[in-house]
Design a protein that fits this description.
mainly alpha; two-stranded antiparallel sheet
């Protein structure tokens, strides 16, 4: 981890010093979140029908309640949470108003406190330090939310901000450095807050300021990914036994469809309105919401999935229909699924059976503040990730040692 005083004396070139911004993309219609529309915008009359006055009045009332709850600049937040935690939980699950989302995310994640305790650190990381991952970051930047106007211009303001955040984190925590997929976390945060705010929220997530530290998702060997996939597979077998049996018969493993759910908290390929609603609850309640949403997706599509053969099953698990991805339908179903106690039991089971327990032994619960540590000498491989090859007598399951970089490239291709 980077410590103050480690920076070099000479000021380093920034990303903007390496590359000149490319030409501005042509003006295109965008949705309310800034993503390029795949279809032409609706006429005003249709928009009016889609947003009736009662709905707008309800949104304004919700916004008024949220402003009163957090106070000016979040001054009343902690006191309100202590007095009425269940009210806060209920309102977060209903969705944070988009205009307040960035501020509320910082408040519920604890990143605002980190920033105040580390003033000037981010600037030093960006300007005075070099990272071994700089070329990898530059290579991957254009793949992060390419359909959003903020990141469209090559080497433009959005891509520069994303580079700065990722580079700063790779210096701040050299054990993790930079791993493909982290760009979607940082990119999502940058759509709602400044570079420095996004950086400290990324630190809060990976180091576990409030909930379980997530740096194990990106450490050598991807230890936390392995644990989460183990837990998720067992939960599917227990809560959806018919589907779990069908997955076994068709040789379907969670690494084939659920890895990116954990790597990016559903921000990679899911509709943005659903992704930010999940993030609202994820930052407030922890990683268990990823398991809940994943199980809700499978439960909603259960009757269709159990009928599909291998090839169609893989496609369906990576391409859910639009009606499944409606936040107001999917999320209430997810909240009804109880997993907290069972997740802890499965974590203990995993640590007893895995050959890499030392990488996860510090991650004890959502209240843990101690990050998992990388131990030197760990083979660079992912145990339990499965590949499938066709043989004359049918499919045979083959266990491979998979390089994390190649595994991640396959996920985010």
């Amino acid at each position: 981890m980077w410590k103050e005083g480690d920076h070099n004396v000479e000021r380093r070139e920034s990303y903007s010093g390496y590359f000149e911004p490319g030409p501005l993309p042509p003006p295109t219609p965008v949705d309310r979140y800034g993503f390029i529309r795949s279809q032409p915008p609706s006429p005003p009359a249709e928009i009016a029908r889609c947003r009736p006055f009662p709905e707008r009045d309800r949104d304004e009332e919700r916004l008024r309640k949220w402003r009163k709850m957090i106070g000016v600049g979040g001054a009343d937040w902690k006191q309100y949470v202590m007095r009425k935690p269940q009210v806060v939980k209920r309102r977060i699950r209903k969705g944070i108003p988009d205009c307040l989302r960035g501020l509320v995310w910082q408040l519920i994640s604890g990143s605002r406190d980190l920033l105040l305790m580390n003033e000037g650190v981010y600037e030093k990381l960006v300007l005075y330090e070099t990272s071994a991952s700089e070329l990898d970051i530059i290579r991957d930047i254009s793949r992060t939310f390419p359909s959003h106007v903020f990141f469209q211009q090559r080497h433009g303001p959005g891509q520069r901000s994303l580079y700065n955040v990722l580079k700063a984190y790779s210096v701040y925590d050299r054990d993790v450095g930079y791993v493909q997929g982290m760009g979607f976390l940082a990119g999502l945060l940058l759509l709602y807050m400044s570079e420095e705010d996004a950086f400290w929220l990324l630190v809060a997530l990976l180091k576990g300021t409030v909930h379980t530290p997530l740096e194990g998702l990106y450490l050598v060997g991807l230890p936390l990914v392995q644990q989460y996939l183990f837990q998720f597979e067992r939960l599917v077998k227990e809560q959806l036994p018919r589907l779990g049996t069908h997955f076994e018969q068709e040789l379907i493993n969670p690494s084939m469809y659920a890895s990116q759910w954990f790597f990016t908290v559903f921000s990679y390929s899911f509709p943005f309105p659903l992704a930010v609603r999940i993030w609202d609850v994820f930052l407030a309640e922890g990683v268990k919401v990823i398991f809940r949403v994943g199980l809700a997706l499978l439960r909603y599509c259960h009757d269709d999935l159990v009928k599909l053969p291998f090839e169609k099953l893989v496609h369906a698990l990576r391409n859910f229909s639009e009606n499944v991805l409606n936040p107001d339908i999917l999320l209430p179903m997810a909240y009804s699924i109880k997993v907290s106690r069972r997740l802890e039991e499965l974590r203990q089971d995993y640590l007893k059976t895995t050959n890499l327990p030392h990488q996860l032994q510090n991650v004890k619960s959502d209240k843990s503040t101690q990050p998992a540590r990388k131990k030197k000498g760990i083979p660079l491989r992912v145990e339990g990730l499965l590949s499938f090859r066709q043989v004359n007598r049918g499919r045979r399951l083959t266990r491979l040692n998979v390089r994390p970089k190649k595994f991640l490239h396959a996920i985010f291709r």
